What does this fold into?
Amino acid sequence: MEINDEIPAEYRNNAAYMNIINRVSVRLYADKPVTSAQVSAILHAAMSAPTGVNRQPWEFIVVDEPELLKQLADALPYAKMTAHASVAIVVCGNKGRFLEGVDSNLWEQDLSAASENILLAAHAIGLGGVWTCIYPHDERIAPVRTILNLPENLVPFNLLPIGYPEKQHAPMNKWHPERVHQNRL
It folds into this structure.
């Protein structure tokens, strides 16, 4: 689907580029299981993300037990759709691989890059997902830590419900050329 006539014609046939442009947040899922091979492919893409000093400070908790999905949905105010997803991936930061000093918060950028790769990979293979925030909210971190029995060295960053979209979603046009500045503001 073309959502912007300003996309140059030579890029409209580029599958990787159009996957980015056409990715949508999916909150309604069909009752169809996601396979372990699909999850593995998605996580391979996640771990291909760039990281500061190649520290790869992530751990991924794959949740596919319906009761745990429901518990997470009940505990997180903006993740209710998790109860109906086939699988959810909780992206966690491993404090043992965080950088120190002025770069100590780069793990947040690293996990964001991995999370976006998860969403793009899911979309590329016909699945859908949505980013739901956990970190930095203590009232969200605590129940996720308890439900998943996470040790103190892991910080739950976000939860990404994944599944087959219940229906096709039209991508939003988020292109705002007035927000692009050349050289200076």
Summary: The radius of gyration is 17 Å. The mean pLDDT is 96.
